[in-house]
Amino acid sequence: RVMAADLVDDAEWHKMLAEFNDHFWGKRAPAFFNAWTVNQLLTPEQWQPDLKISIHGLAGVAALVNEEALGDMAREIERLWDTQGPTSGLVPLVQQLAEALMLSKAIHDDA
User: Fold this and answer.
1) Torsion angle of alpha carbons 22, 23, 24, 29, nearest 10°?
2) Phi, psi (5° rounding) for residue 47?
3) DSSP states of 43-98 as a string?
4) pLDDT for 59
5) From CA 70, how far away is CA 76, in angstroms rounded?
6) How far apart are CA 25 and CA 67, in angstroms?
7) Contact 25/105 with Cβ under 8 angstroms?
8) Separation in Å, CA 10 to CA 18, 21, 61, 62, 74
9) pTM of the entire structure?
10) pLDDT surpasses 70 at 7
11) Could you tell me which of 49, 58, 69 has the C-alpha nearest to residue 30?
């Protein structure tokens, strides 16, 4: 599989990808973890806007940091949220996203 990083080999492109990585792991992932830590204690009907915003943020940047599967998960949660509202059916999906993101973060941090 060809990744975006494989297609362009110049310093400016690599610098931009590094900035996306820093932003994703330093801002987007922690924002999601913080939002989920608070919102998982609530019923889905009580979920705060920061949770959806953080899921949207993951969906938008994940592919740029070679985390396509995380982005796909986040987009699916967002799609279901938009079409059905925050329902109890989203709880296991958001938890699965949190667990997958934690695993990816551990791998990223060890790299």
Assistant:
1) 110
2) -55, 140
3) -GGG--HHHHHHHHHHHHHGGGGT-HHHHHHHHHHHHHHHHH-S-TTHHHHHHHHH
4) 95
5) 10
6) 11
7) yes
8) 12, 17, 21, 21, 30
9) 0.87
10) no
11) 58
The token pair at 12 is 């400016």
Rounded Cα distance between 78 and 90, Å, is 9
DSSP state of 26: I
pLDDT at 6 over 70: no
In 3D space, the residue among 80, 79, 68, 74 whose CA is nearest the CA of residue 94 turns out to be 74
| Distance (Å, whole) CA 102 – CA 111 | 14
Listed residue (47, 32, 27, 42) closest to 96, CA to CA: 32
Residue 60 reports pLDDT greater than 70: yes
For the record, the structure tokens of 92 come out as 């296991």
Report the length, in residues, of the chain: 111
Paired tokens of 81: 């949220």
